[in-house]
Design a protein that fits this description.
It contains 10 helices and 8 strands. It has 298 residues and is of the alpha/beta class. Bound molecules: zinc ion (ZN). The site of zinc ion has 4 residues, from helix 6 and helix 8.
């Protein structure tokens, strides 16, 4: 009898590290979000209020999973509060709706600065001369499981949702991109056919944006920062898809369709169509100095 008791206790001790996290997650998922959290989602996650109830519930469950698994760290003395946690989690989880995927499986920590932050960078200049400098960033996404965000800018993107510039969506699109093994503008898509279609559409629109950026042509839909590389193009296109869905669908129909298939939502259902004049006619601006873009391929 004693032996069985000891064997049972030993088995329990071995299983506990596996069972306990599942038990705590189940408990967290079963608890409804407090009213303050719902108010934050309504205030700071643009489409939340316009979603149908089932999708809202799905987003709330994803947010609970996200907050249960991921750690927030305040930088430069910033104290992380619920407004930050629910705003960032709510926006990040918009990218995961209607999919059976894990909640950013490689991600473990979100570092939040009060505003734009400085990072050291080395640059190689003419003649191979390496210079050290500092760059000001609004966000960063790392393959080792970290996302870094400026809170000021995360909040600005939340409040000005229809501007289509959102650092949280941008950095979490990079996370999805890197889950496929390489941050190259092609997240995990499943079939060869999906990759073929994605590559054909995004390569063409990327090349067009690089051309427009070089010649200073601005159509007011996709920001020229997306011309930097295929990975940046996917991240910027994601911001545009959620923030300016009508404009993107009109000017970049095939790209919109690829993103709609990938994200499994149609953000036009959450926004009234803008007045006709809001879809600006393309304008040409004088190129700001000589710019060149490295050759990149999907
Ligand atoms: Zn980026």
């Amino acid at each position: 009898m004693d032996a069985w008791l000891w064997i049972s206790l030993a088995a329990l001790a071995c299983a506990a590290p596996l069972l306990y996290p599942r038990w705590t997650l189940r408990r967290a998922l079963a608890r409804p979000l407090p009213p303050e959290a719902l108010a934050i989602l309504e205030r700071n996650v643009g489409p939340y209020r316009s979603m149908e109830p089932a999708l809202r519930e799905q987003l709330r469950q994803l947010v609970k999973r996200f907050l249960h698994r991921k750690k927030f760290v305040g930088c430069e003395g910033l104290e992380i509060d619920d407004e930050m946690r629910y705003t960032i989690a709510g926006q990040a989880c918009l990218l995961l709706l209607n999919r059976p995927s894990k909640v950013y499986r490689a991600l473990h920590t979100i570092l939040v600065y009060p505003g734009a932050f400085l990072v050291p960078r080395q640059e190689v200049g003419p003649g191979g001369v390496v210079t050290a400098g500092k760059h000001t960033l609004l966000g960063e996404s790392w393959d080792d499981g970290r996302v870094v965000l400026s809170w000021d800018d995360a909040l600005r993107g939340a409040r000005d949702w229809r501007e289509g510039q959102n650092v949280v969506l941008h950095e979490f699109a990079h996370q999805l991109d890197s889950e496929s093994g390489h941050g190259n503008g092609a997240p995990y898509l499943g079939s060869h056919e999906n990759y073929r279609n994605w590559s054909a559409v995004l390569s063409r629109d990327f090349a067009n944006l690089r051309h427009d950026a070089y010649y200073g042509r601005q159509d007011g839909v996709i920001d020229h920062y997306g011309a930097t590389s295929p990975a940046e193009f996917f991240a910027v296109a994601t911001e545009t898809f959620f923030g300016k869905p009508w404009q993107m669908a009109e000017r970049h129909a095939a790209l919109y369709d690829e993103l709609r298939k990938y994200y499994r939502v149609d953000p036009r259902e959450w926004q009234a169509a803008p007045p006709a004049e809001a879809v600006e006619a393309p304008v040409f601006m004088a190129p700001s100095g000589q710019r060149s873009f490295a050759v990149a391929s999907w």
